[in-house]
């Protein structure tokens, strides 16, 4: 009644290389997708100078 378990595959250099490359490929791909989404959803600056816009807003509040 002794069940024989299948022998585990040894970790080879080829396996480590493939998993390392796959890991970095996934990380780089996700970073590229996130950069693309961030760039396309941000149209750019809405005002030329945030300081002058805040001064105008403060003047509007004071008025």
Quick synopsis:
The chain is mostly helical.
Give an overview of the whole structure.
By secondary structure, this protein is mainly α. The chain is 67% helix and 0% strand. It is built from two helices and no strands.
List the helices and strands and how they pair.
Blueprint: H1 13-41, H2 50-62
Give the key terms:
63 residues; mainly alpha; rod-shaped
Strand percent estimate: under 5%
Question: Mean pLDDT, nearest integer?
Answer: 88
Number of helices: 2
- Tell me the structural class: mainly alpha
Order of helices and strands: HH
**Low-pLDDT regions:** none
Most strands sheet: none
Identify the quaternary structure here.
Answer: single chain
Number of strands: 0
Q: How far is the N terminus from the C terminus?
A: 91 Å
Helix content: 55-70%
What is the general shape? rod-shaped
Radius of gyration: 28 Å
